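call fold(seq) -> C-alpha cells
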Amino acid sequence: MCSQPHPPIAAAAILEARNVSKSFAGVKALADVSLTLRPGHVHALMGENGAGKSTLMKVLAGLHAVDSGEILLDGRPIRLRSPREALRNGIAMIHQELTPIPDLTVAENILLGHEPAARLLGWIDRRALRSEARRLLDLLQIDLPVTGKMRHLSVAQVQTVEIAKALGHNARVLIMDEPTAAISDREVQALFNVIAMLKQRGVAIVYITHKMDEVFRIADSITVLRDGSHVGTYPAAGLDRGSLIALMVGRPLGAVASKAAAPKGETTLSVRGLSRSGAFHNVSFDVRQGEVLGITGLMGAGRTEMVSAVFGLVAADAGEIRVAGVPVRIRCVADAIRHGIGMVTEDRKAFGLVATMSVQHNMTLASLGDCCVGPLIRRAKESAMAGAGMRTLAIKTSGPRQAVGQLSGGNQQKVVIARSLLAGPSIIILDEPTRGIDVGAKGEVYALVAQLARQGKSIVLVSSELPEVLMLSDRLLVMRQGSVVAELDPSRTSQEEVLRYAMPL
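ret:
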C-alpha cells in the first residue's frame, strides 16, 4: 500500500481553507488557519487536544460557520451552511463516534437520504437499493451482506459502510477523525488498503489521529495545529516522530516517569472467580497499595466487562470481591464508591460525562455529598473542589461553568479522571485512559498514574496499547476470550510475547 506513487504536490487543489477563524463563547478555537487538500493525497492533521483539528474539520463539513476567512472549492469561494450542503459539494466526514441506524440494513444506511425511487411515487426500489449498495461496496473490495442489520456489524465494518456512503455521494474529499481508535490491527490494515484505493480514485483524504506510526505509514503531507493556530505544513517524509511531537507541543517531550519506586503495601483489592456469562470467566487477581496492575488483551477479550463488574456497572454471575481483606457486595456504582473504588470508563461520552452540564458539575457529581449541607449544595465549596481538580490536572477551559461537551477530548478525559479522584478512592480503575487523546496529554496521564502509585493508591490499568501498559505496570495480566491466560513481569517480557498469549488459539 505504501508503495503507491505519490501524486505531484503541484496538483490543483480540490478544497482550501484560507485564514479561517472561529470562536466559541469568547474562546478562540481557530486563528487564521489555512489548509490545502489535493486529489489522491492523504493529508494528516496533527495537534494536541484543543489544537483546533476537529473545529477546522467541522467547518469544512458544514457543521460550523466561519467567523472570518473563506473556503474555496476548485478555486471558487463557497459557503457551507450544513453537512447536507457539504455533501452536495463532495465533502464527507466520518466522525470518531459512528452513528449508524442499527435497525436498518447495510444497504439502507449506505443510501440513506438518496434512495432510488420506483416508478410508483413514494416507494423505494428495493432491488435497485441493494444493487447500488453492492456496487459501492465492490468498489472498496469489501464483502458485506447488504441485507444484514447494522447492529450486527463490527466497528470496522460500520466504518466501511460510512466510506461506501461517502462514495455514494460522490465524495471528492473524505475526512476521517480517529478512524482506528476502536479497531484491531488487522482491521487497521484493511482500512489502510481502502485508503490506498481511494487515493487511486483521486479522493483527497484528511486523516486525524494521535497514533504516530499511522501518520508515517499513510500520510503524504502533515499539517500541525497548536492552540488554534497553523504551525506549518510539511511533507511527511521530511519529519520524524521527535520533530513532529516538538511541533505539536511546542517543545521536545521529556521522559515520562513510569513505575513508582516505593515498596508495595498490603493487598487492597482481591478478586476471586469473577464470572459473567458470555463475557468473562473465573477471573482472579490481587492488587496491592502502590501497585499498578496492567490488564491487556485483544478487543473482545472481556477486559472492560470484567472491570465494569468490579465497579458495579454490570453484574457478575459469580465470584467474590474483597476490599482490604473484607468481602463486599458491589451491586451498583454507589457501592463501589462507598468501598473506595473509583473508575475512569473506556467510553467517556456514554458513561463518563453529561455533555450539556458544566465542567464543575461533571467534576463533582461523584462527591456531591461533600458539598452539601442537608439537601442544599454549598456552591462555594463545590467551586473550590472543582477548581482544585482543574488546577491539579491542568484542564484547559474558559472557566468551570463551560459546558464539558465544548472541551477537547483530552480535557474531557481529564474531567472524568478529576471526578474519580475527588471522591478519594484508594483503588482506581483506569480503562483505556489515553484513548483518543494526544501525545502531550498522554504524557500527563502517565505522570499522574506514577504519582498516584507513589501516594499508595492501587491502580488497575486496562489498555490495548502495549508500549503504554508495559511501561506503566508493575505486573501484567493478559486476557483472552474472557479468561486470564498469563501473568507477566513487564520488565522481562516483550510486545511479541504478550501478543502470543492474547491471540485466540
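Residues 1-9 have pLDDT under 50 and may be disordered.
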